[in-house]
Amino acid sequence: MIGIPTAAIEDAPPTTRAIWTDVLAYWEPRRLIYNGLLTMVVVMQVLQQHWVRELLTPSALARLVIAAAAANFCYSLAHGLDMAIQHSDFRRFWRDHRGWIFLFGCWLGVAISYLSLGEFVLSIRQ
User: Fold this and answer.
1) pLDDT, tens digit, 9 for 90 and up, residues 85-96
2) How many domains does the chain have?
3) With contact defined as beta carbons under 8 Å apart, do 38 and 109 qualify?
């Protein structure tokens, strides 16, 4: 448009509301991928190890729900990290590279799920 200075608008720091919108728009759709990966690990391990009977006990299901809630809480920690960094001078760099945090978090979640399912959720000594 003629007469509207766009450089001043682009250089203005984003509002907290705009950053929250960006954080949620980035992380929440990826939560489905994260939960899907963790679900696949659990299902594959239960079927591979023939742990279906052990999983269907009330105590194992309760521990599985607790583990899933803990995994999603840990995923939500990325929101706070993202908010903090976007309020800094590293905002542009962070937005271009935060996918690496997502990939590392997925890898870590899959590793923890795989290693802890038998002992923590199913109470099977390995």
Assistant:
1) 999 999 999 999
2) 1
3) yes
